């Protein structure tokens, strides 16, 4: 691929950190990328924490991160809910609710919003959401993302996707997905870097062939780099039409980007 690289989009969980541990080479890789002057943004489906808490977590892991560099599906969802004046039933962890301050959530709810919320994925809450959806099939059903699973320090864990699909199956209401791999989500970060019309000169680095490098990334023509950390499994690089680069970790991916700039 001969395109000059003008920007980089970076996944967080599984790509530069797993749980409370930075991935090998990630801190140094981000430092080198920042020093190169290439603009970058973090594009994450992380919904267990607010942007402020996420930023603090990354700083504590050794990364230099500025709040305006982080684009989360949580904020994108909040903007949709606010603009439509909805009063949702929220499946969110307490640490993420900070980003929904000011959004009314009292009953009766007129929407269902689901992020990654292990403490809420229990029968009582799921059945409450089901009843809201089945009673009015025009009820907005918003999935902040639909990842099947995510990487934790002790292995893979179920993501929100299976619970969202269970509700879709039971209620007959299809969820609208807000975060990756939706094209509109990547566009938010590209616009912020003033690179929306140069998407084929922008690298997306992630560990998930579907939710980081899937439909929206492909539609926009992003250069897709897959890293062998987080939820990566052998052979992922051969799925979904392949990728533009496969690297042991984020740091190696950054090295490849910087090497291309020298040519």
Largest sheet: 6 strands, parallel
CATH class of the largest domain: Alpha Beta
Number of strands: 14
- Count of folded domains: 2
What letter string, H or E per element, gives the SSE order?
EEEHEHEHEEHEEEHEHEHEEH
Considering DSSP H and I runs of 4 or more, what fraction of the residues is helical? Answer: 25-40%
The outline comes out as globular
Radius of gyration: 18 Å
From the 3D coordinates, which CATH architecture of the largest domain would you assign? 3-Layer(aba) Sandwich
Q: Give the mean pLDDT.
A: 94
Structural class: alpha/beta
C-alpha end-to-end distance: 13 Å
Structure characterization notes:
By secondary structure, the chain is α/β, with parallel strands linked by helices. The protein has 2 domains: 103 residues, Rossmann fold, CATH 3.40.50.1000; 104 residues, 3-Layer(aba) Sandwich (Rossmann fold). It is built from 8 helices and 14 strands. The strands form 4 sheets. Strands 5-4-1-12-13-14 form a 6-stranded parallel beta sheet. A hairpin with a 2-residue loop joins strand 9 and strand 10. Phosphatase that hydrolyzes imidodiphosphate, 3-phosphohistidine and 6-phospholysine. Has broad substrate specificity and can also hydrolyze inorganic diphosphate, but with lower efficiency. Its cofactor is Mg(2+). This is Haloacid dehalogenase-like hydrolase domain-containing protein 2.
């Amino acid at each position: 691929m001969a395109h000059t690289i003008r920007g980089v989009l970076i996944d967080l969980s599984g790509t530069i950190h797993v749980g409370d541990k930075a991935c090998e080479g990630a801190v140094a890789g981000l430092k080198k990328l920042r020093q190169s002057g290439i603009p970058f943004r973090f594009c994450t489906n992380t919904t267990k924490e607010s942007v402020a808490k996420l930023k603090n977590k990354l700083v504590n892991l050794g990364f230099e991160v500025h709040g305006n560099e982080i684009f989360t599906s949580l904020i994108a969802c909040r903007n949709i809910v606010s603009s439509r004046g909805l009063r949702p039933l929220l499946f969110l962890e307490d640490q993420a609710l900070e980003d929904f301050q000011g959004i009314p959530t009292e009953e009766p709810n007129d929407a269902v919003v689901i992020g990654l919320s292990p403490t809420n994925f229990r029968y009582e809450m799921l059945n409450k959401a089901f009843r809201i959806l089945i009673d009015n099939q025009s009820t907005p059903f918003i999935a902040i993302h639909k990842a099947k699973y995510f990487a934790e320090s002790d292995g893979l864990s179920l993501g929100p996707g299976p619970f969202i699909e269970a509700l879709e199956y039971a209620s007959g209401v299809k969820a609208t997905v807000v975060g990756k791999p939706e094209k509109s989500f990547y566009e938010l970060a590209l616009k912020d870097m003033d690179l929306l019309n140069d998407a084929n000169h922008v690298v997306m680095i992630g560990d998930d062939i579907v939710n980081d490098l899937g439909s929206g990334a492909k539609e926009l023509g992003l250069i897709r780099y897959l890293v062998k950390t987080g939820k990566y499994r052998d052979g992922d690089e051969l799925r979904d039409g392949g990728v533009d680069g496969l690297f042991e970790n984020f740091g190696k991916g950054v090295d490849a980007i910087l090497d291309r700039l020298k040519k």
